């Protein structure tokens, strides 16, 4: 019986992805967006352009993958002591980040992907964060609690719509109103 070698977590594939993502992030700061290209990214990452095309297909999908990864939360959800406070803190931080120029570009890259999988990664991250917030509220004895889907529809949907089409119209008051209405 021939034994298969064990899969190495974080092997070559992970190193290539990390190098390509880092190249995109660095070049995005150095080069105007319209000059960003697969060959330029490949050169910076130390891989061949065919590696990028094989894995991501095209520049648009690579940018969406990098954006989706960057949109993953890297800090714990703030615990303010109440469901409403936690939602305002979490969604307010997201709103602030996404109204920035880099945030707007990440949002456009992610939403511009033709890959449902890329967009789903962001949705799953939001679902996970909202579930953590709801679980904490439940542990504090807060009732009744909305569902994750209700929070997505009542808070994240209007927030994402405004971020996409009219970010200048957003305010913390908008956010507080959407949250309050969703919790009623």
UniProtKB/TrEMBL annotation:
This protein's UniProt keywords: DNA-binding, Transcription, Transcription regulation
Span of domain HTH tetR-type: 14-74
DNA-binding region as annotated in the record: 37-56
Pfam families associated with the record: TetR_C_11, TetR_N
InterPro entries documented for this protein: Homeodomain-like_sf, HTH-type_TetR-like_transc_reg, HTH_TetR, Tet_transcr_reg_TetR-rel_C_sf, TetR_C
UniProt KW DNA-binding keyword: yes
A GO molecular-function annotation: transcription cis-regulatory region binding
Residue ranges of the TM segments: none
PANTHER family named among the record's database cross-references: HTH-TYPE TRANSCRIPTIONAL REGULATOR RUTR (PTHR30055), TETR-FAMILY TRANSCRIPTIONAL REGULATOR (PTHR30055:SF148)
Name by which UniProt lists this protein: TetR family transcriptional regulator
The species this protein was found in: Halomonas halmophila
